[in-house]
Design brief:
3 helices; elongated
């Protein structure tokens, strides 16, 4: 609803200098472009692919976080037991 197209449309259908009310009658006339079914399916496929890539990156990051946590715990234990002197 915040796109320039919608703003221009609402300005076109408004009466006077300001639009005092925005009711269902006005909103029902707002044209909403819907891509063809084939394009919708391509968009879904692209979103699924991007999501899978992001999940893979998230897994890799989580492995790194876990390894850093283990390293931190090991370093703390080594200092506490005197194996490493600061």
């Amino acid at each position: 609803m915040g796109s320039d197209f919608i703003r221009r449309f609402l300005q076109f259908v408004s009466v006077g200098a300001t639009m005092d009310n925005l009711n269902t009658s006005i909103l029902s006339k707002v044209p909403i472009p819907i891509p063809p079914k084939e394009e919708q399916l391509r968009i879904i496929d692209a979103v699924v692919q991007i999501q899978a890539e992001h999940q893979e990156v998230a897994k890799t990051l989580q492995i790194g976080i876990n390894q850093l946590y283990e390293f931190k715990q090991s370093a703390i234990a080594s200092v506490v037991t005197g194996k490493i002197k600061l």
